[in-house]
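Worked problem 6 (solution included).
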Amino acid sequence: MAGLARGVTLLAVLVFLSACNEKTVNDQTLGKPIGAPVASVAVVDIPVTYTVPGSVISDGRIAVSSRVVGFVEQLDVREGQRVSRSDLLVRIDPSDIDEAIRQAQAGVRASQEDLEDAERDVQRYATLAPSGAVASETLRKSRVRADIARAALDKAQSALAAAEAQRSYATITSPVDGVIVSVARRRGEMATAGSTILIVESREVLLFKTFASESNLALIDAKKPVLVRIDTLKGAPFQGRIRGIVPSGDEITRRYEINIVLPNDPSLVPGMFGRAEIVLGLQKSPTIPRVALVRRGGIDGVFVLDGKIARFRWLRTGRDLGDSVEVVAGLSGGETILAAANDTVRDGSVIEKVEQAR
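Solution. The predicted structure is:
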């Protein structure tokens, strides 16, 4: 009997402990309701973007060359130096040009004297011809000689004007406000007509040069703004506009050149690498507030409300939309989620709605 009594007592203790343990588990599962804000998963129109790499280039890259032949007498600019419009860049030795001007001036003086002499003959013969003192043929020939002398004077004056124009080409000034990016000649070297002496690059208009594939070309709307991000500026965005699409593609790559006008910003420098985000259209996708995204066990997701119970759901996110994030997989739209979850929220926690997040 004593053994039976001990067995009954032991069974009663086990039943009591089991009931206590079940109550503890239920308390841990349901627990005290946790107040948390909630939000509804919205389905919005998200731009479909086409990202292409490219580089910043100057729309005013000018190769400065000489129109005359001569030795470089003065060239004081160097690579990287800033210049303003009309600043002196190069001076060519004008000795040969000055000599040509003197020769042209002498030709003008000779032609003037010849013309004056011819006109005097015309006046004298015109006075004597009516009385028969000179033949009419002599008067005619004097007039022809005067016309020839007048034409020779015009030719000499044109030669003088051309020589004087060459004198102005011996001094080369900057055509734009910009930066010297390359110097091909030095003082004392020979400058030949048409050969590049230096290259000046204007910063007045900067372009982002990129290439688009043939498959996306028809979807590009040149009227829509384009967002350009520059890598070296930590992805800083610059809004540009498409100036034009070159309607001739590469036969091998099937890509077409696109030039995007960039804003006037001192941080932009030709040669910088970046990426252009071209909007091709819109698509509907679910989005969630960024603060609603939590990490549990190394996995990103959100807590979806099933009645009053929070259930953790894994998500695959897409593009960053500022204060919100695109959801690629895990939500379809319309679900109620926790707009903000702290470390006390677990899968199975009871939630008490305290406000509706906007």
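Discussion: The chain has three domains: 31-46+285-356, 50-59+203-281, 94-168.
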